[in-house]
Amino acid sequence: MSILILAFLIGIICGLRALMGPAIASWGAGLGWFSLEGTSMHFMSSAITRWIFTIAEIAELINDKLPQTASRKVPPQFIARVIMGALAGATLGAARNSLPGGLIAGAIGAVVGTLGGASVRGALGKAFGKDLPAALIEDAVALLGAIFIVSRV
Q1: Residue 13 falls in which region: left (phi positive, over 0), alpha (psi -120 to 50) or beta
Q2: Other C-beta atoms lying within 10 Å of the C-beta of residue 49
Q3: pLDDT value of residue 48
Q4: Number of Cα atoms under 13 Å in the Cβ half of residue 8
Q5: Of 33, 42, 55, 98, which cross-links 93 as Cys (Cβ 3.0–4.6 Å)?
Q6: Whole-number Cα distances in Å, 131 to 89, 120, 127, 149
Q7: Which residue stretches of 17-130 are H helix?
Q8: Computed from CA positions of residues 129, 79, 49, 66, in that sequence, does the dihedral angle turn out positive or negative?
Q9: Given CA atoms 115, 116, 119, 122 in this order, what sign does their dihedral have?
Q10: Rounded to whole angstroms, what are the CA distances from 113 to 36, 96, 117?
């Protein structure tokens, strides 16, 4: 599969859960699924980076379920998702000598994932009569999707 498609897809994951893409990309690089040696993204393969993103992702998963959490479509959250999509996409792209393309594809994917994810989650929430089941499904899709995507690099 093309690295730009994978970068776009990991961006979609960041639209669902902002930190999931960078966290799983960092784990993939750290576990040797792909190499970032000699690239400007090499820092993503370090243990410190993996654990920072993992702890932040766990906090995001918890915060997402709280009633006072802002919509993913408000500017700060939307921008964060695009930046994290670009980071995750750049990480995957760097592994295949396509850092700029990966960065752009990841950012575009994050826009698609943010808007599409909000729409699907809203519809699922209405179907279930409450948001929590929809949120948990979204968590599972983001985690399993990210692992699948990163394992293909």
Answers
A1: alpha
A2: 21
A3: 98
A4: 8
A5: 98
A6: 29, 11, 9, 26
A7: 20-30, 47-63, 75-95, 99-128
A8: negative
A9: negative
A10: 26, 23, 5
Distance of CA 98 to the CA centre of its chain: 18
Residue 75 CB contacts under 8 Å (≥ 6 apart), including other chains: none
Tokens representing residue 95 in the block: 């592994």
Per-residue pLDDT tens listing for the chain (153 residues) = 799 999 999 999 999 999 999 999 999 999 999 999 999 999 999 999 999 999 999 999 999 999 899 999 999 999 999 999 999 999 999 999 999 999 999 999 999 999 999 999 999 999 999 999 999 999 999 999 999 999 999
Residue 98 is predicted with a pLDDT of 97
Query: How long a stretch of residues is the chain?
Result: 153
pLDDT of residue 122: 95
Q: Which residue has the tokens 């243990």?
A: 47
Predicted pLDDT of residue 1:
79
Using CA atoms, how far apart are residues 21 and 88, in angstroms rounded to an integer? Answer: 5
Read out DSSP for 105-151? Answer: HHHHHHHHHHHHHHHHHHHHHHHHTSHHHHHHHHHHHHHHHHHHHHH
